[in-house]
Amino acid sequence: MRAIRRGAAAACAIGLGGSLLVSPAPARTPDAAWRDDATSRVEVLALLQTLNADLLSHPSATLTLERWCGAHHLAPEAKVVAERVRGEDKPLPEEARKQLAIGPDEPVRYRRVQLACGEHVLSEADNWYVPSRLTDAMNHELDTTDTPFGKVVQPLHFRRQTLSAELLWSPLPQGWENGAPVPASKDSALEIPHHVLQHRAVLFDQDNRPFSLVVETYTSEVLAFAPVVVTRP
Asked: pTM of this prediction?
């Protein structure tokens, strides 16, 4: 527990502009993985919570991931591209027609993409959208290109209503801050599952019409950078 508190104190000192110096974080290499120790677990949890808050406070997950990619040097160019996953259509979830305010016969299209920055797939997104509430040009671009959905529909000046935001994995057990046992440190890399965070949201256009239901599942690749190295002057 002392190790965790030291790690948290270091993070606070950095955030408050203390005298600690943080060296630039290069792209992760196999020898620069997160270690399985108490300090790393605190740092990883803080990063996941920071990303979660950033996603919740902005309408476009694509643009948020581009900022994240740039801030953590995940690729030479902080550009997120959508890689279409074809042939895996999923039925519209229950309650979705009510959430989208459409009748039983209104056509809905499905689009699944992986959002990648450089070699890192940061998110896997399922998207059900109402084509009649988009322009012909938008529908054509969605049908024929891999452009991220959020970029295609930007002219709608859309807003995002989050239905749920869930950490699928936590590096620390519930109640750790109150003394719950923390996994013992190991001389090895921290094992992080492939899926770490999931958001469900509905997108509304500027006329407050819902036009898209998205389920975004974020991967461990959002953490694919070397831990910061803290040194004292």
From this structure: 0.77
